[in-house]
Specification:
The protein is α+β, with helices and mostly antiparallel strands. It is built from 3 helices and 9 strands. Strands 2-3-1-6 form a 4-stranded antiparallel β-sheet. A 3-stranded antiparallel β-sheet has the order 7-8-9, with no helix packed on it. A two-stranded antiparallel ribbon has the order 4-5.
Length: 116
């Protein structure tokens, strides 16, 4: 199966309560159809998840739950986008391409040197 096929069977869920776990999401989405995998991403005070269903129709059903309340929070349920690498990404042309990088014991912020 291709990445595009998996993405069509998946949804992106954001604005989750920090205590939300895989079991909570499985229970919440079980009425939509069979679930293959739940992946929760934690970071910077935000939780979001990807729920992969067994069928495309189940993912379509899940999108109907957009705006529903889970653990006291209004969640967003969106179609999962297919990741497409950007051209030229990861190539540093000048120091201004990065908001911060370290050089000789200093941090550079948009060309201004600040001693750490």
């Amino acid at each position: 199966q291709t990445q595009s096929t998996w993405d069509k069977r998946s949804v992106f869920v954001k604005n989750l309560d920090l205590s939300t776990n895989k079991e909570d999401l499985s229970e919440f989405f079980k009425s939509c159809g069979g679930i293959n995998r739940v992946t929760i991403m934690y970071g910077k005070g935000k939780n979001y998840a990807y729920v992969e269903f067994n069928e495309v129709e189940a993912a379509e059903n899940a999108k109907i739950l957009d705006g529903s309340i889970l653990k006291g929070r209004q969640i967003n349920v969106l179609a999962k986008r297919t990741n497409v690498p950007r051209q030229g990404r990861g190539v540093m042309k000048t120091h201004r391409d990065f908001s911060r990088f370290r050089t000789r014991g200093h941090y550079m912020f948009h060309g201004l040197s600040l001693i750490h």
